[in-house]
User: Fold this.
Amino acid sequence: MFKLEPRTQTSMLLAVAAPLLALAITVLIGIMLFTALGKDPVQALGLFFVEPLKNGRALAELSIKAVPLALIALGLAVCFRANIWNIGAEGQFVLGALGAGWVAMHAGPGASGWFVVPVLLGGVAGGMLWAGVVALLRDRFNTNEILVSLMLVYVATLLLNYLVYGPWKDPDGYNFPQTVLFAPGTRLPRLVTGLRMNLGVVIALLAVVAFAVFQFRTYRGYALTVGGIAPAAARYAGFSSRSALWTALLLSGGMAGLAGALEVAGPLGQLTPYVPVGYGFAAIIVAFVGRLHPVGIVFSSVLMSMFYIGGELAQSRMGLPKALTSVFQGLLLFTLLACDNGLQYRMRWVAAAKDKAKARAGVAA
Amino acid sequence: MTRLELIGITKQYPGVRANDDIHLKVAPGQIHAVLGENGAGKSTLMKIIYGATRPDAGQMAWNGREVAVASPAQARALGISMVYQHFSLFDTLTAAENIWLGLDKALSLAEVVEQTRVVSAEYGLHVDPARPVHTLSVGERQRVEIVRALLTRPQLLILDEPTSVLTPQAVESLFVTLRKLSSEGCSILYISHKLHEIRSLCHHCTVLRGGRLVGEVDPRQESNASLSRLMIGADAPVLTAREGQRGANVLRVAGLGLAQLDPFGVTLKDIAFDVSAGEIVGVAGVSGNGQQELLAALSGEDPRAAPGSIQLFDHDIARASPGKRRAAGLHFVPEERLGRGAVPTLSLAMNTLLTRTEAVGRGGWLRMGEARRLAAKLIDGFRVKASGPDAMARTLSGGNLQKFIVGREIDAAPKLLIIAQPTWGVDVGAAAQIRGELLRLRNPGCALLVFSEELDELFEICDRLHVIAEGRLSPSVPIAAATREQIGEWMSGLWPGSAAVEEASHVQA
Assistant:
């Protein structure tokens, strides 16, 4: 029989080792999966781990996916550290896209490049509004934020569909469910000509620094952390749990909204029913794989976007199903949780002791 | 023949050897004390005997036969029963239902009720089988636990710190029961760190220190001092309390009433008292009589008190946040160290930030160097054993963490310090140091309010005593005029003019 006993010390090295070990196990299971499907595992793994890093073009595509993931995960990490379970970043992302789209539609064809600033702010406001609903319901009626934030994802998606099929539909769009293409002034400048990589990368890196400072060097961040890991100590210190709730939800909502706005002002350029692609949910995994640490999130968001791109390549080049991306994401989270457990506890084989005891009892009898 | 014999019991936990080659012999009918400080390994040893934990080495013989007890169920089958320090009763069930749940045999509830009546009459343990547990006092709950243990007709009864929640009178009646059991041949293992109880009750005493056996004595032949020397390995530090200089009023509480927050909490009723500068006021009482609720109202963790009911320097603070109260000079040391007084997984430096704002700069910017300096100063000034300001709070022993927390609040130069269970679970040396610090704080004119369940401690340091019972607070009595018997009676709510006494006099009339 295996027995779990808590370890007295969990070293820093192991805390970093857990995500790496989880990645290794995920790859191992991946190899078995490809072999079972009769595909060449080396080629398949190459699509996931080599192809997305091959050249500048590939890296630029990687950044397109990593930026929204990182931005959303940064906000979520603050929530999760404060023990507030915002599962609805996907909905806040959609509302961010709607907010940004609404502002962008007001730009004339000759709008200056600075118009992108109100567009992004519109996105932040949209995300905050959606997360604010969750905070309000929890604060006033003590509703469960997990359920409310998750349900609001579906409301947000329906709202998007209603708008692009109805009031916001492009009158000259041949009845396709999409808005007009937004004016060039509302679009984010690209960093390198010819590549889709845009200013979002810089914004994300600045956000990483800002969140690291907030979390580890400000009293507000400290109060949030204490509220998450020791609620009684936070009450004793006098840190308001209401303020923690609102801060964490508005921050994470705002970040998800910003990510949505960057999509609108970046690769999309218009609203369609296909705005939500699951970044909000994948970012939950990104936040945990990144150990809820801003720097860790940089690495995990890159890893997760490699899964996205690898999944698409595997579909087009090897005829593997697209669901493979989700399988890999799920595997990674699952193995990470297992590795975390393995770090906090030590597994011991205790059957031997029991047999000995039995033998002893037998002798005595 | 010996009832129970332990030979060379050893148990290693990660990082600590809880029991190291322990030998122990219990004769039939013997009341055998196991004495030791917190962390000496008493509880681990009892868990091994009761089958809740398995030793790494050593043998156990029961009535002359070697046995390996694999589970508490097997222990009960052998005739070993245990009453834990923390009760394991369901509040919503009746006494009889709770007893029923704890029995292994298939009996009907009616039979259990009947047997409960028989056993409780036999041993003078009055228990009403039909009453729900949440309506019982702590002493009554313990009787339910003991009756449950006795229903299995044990040959060995293990009691873990049974008197920590009892009034002095209840302790006496428990001892009557235990002596009767002993005279009938039931052996008793009595775990405690209270010396006078062991000397008045037990026939034999095994002393543990740091997981090792350090002495086997007849407690009736020993003095408190000699037992204490065995237990801590040194002479207990002596504290010299001097009369304080009572100054101006600091805290005034009047007409404080608070409805209970959860169904099994305590409702505070019409609490009134005051504390002046330069005095230590003690609040005695059996735990669960409203101490937690009153402390939360005073500290600001529970902000529901009616406006005007709590005044600090004649300013109403009844609804103020803990931070505001702290800014006005009210500091508080809670009973729970880990998770409330300190965050277990944060460093000592980060833990100073809970109640101190020296390291918080402009715009909420944290000055880490300042926090680390403050933690180092506390470690140094209050002789905290820790690897440094970056040590995680949970790596400190109970006594050292308590010294750190008490130091953090004392160092803030409070005008009123409220402290709950200042030395609970703390070794004797650290306890004496903390009491000394409290006395030193009083003399320059700080007001102190101390809540404790240890009467000895309150008698040692306080100038005046109140007693809290069932959510009501007694009038205060100067320490010079107080006796243990009187305070013990008050702990049952029976002080002059109290509701309980009025009721009794109505019945008589």
Remarks:
- Confidence is low (pLDDT under 50) at residues 352-365 of chain A.
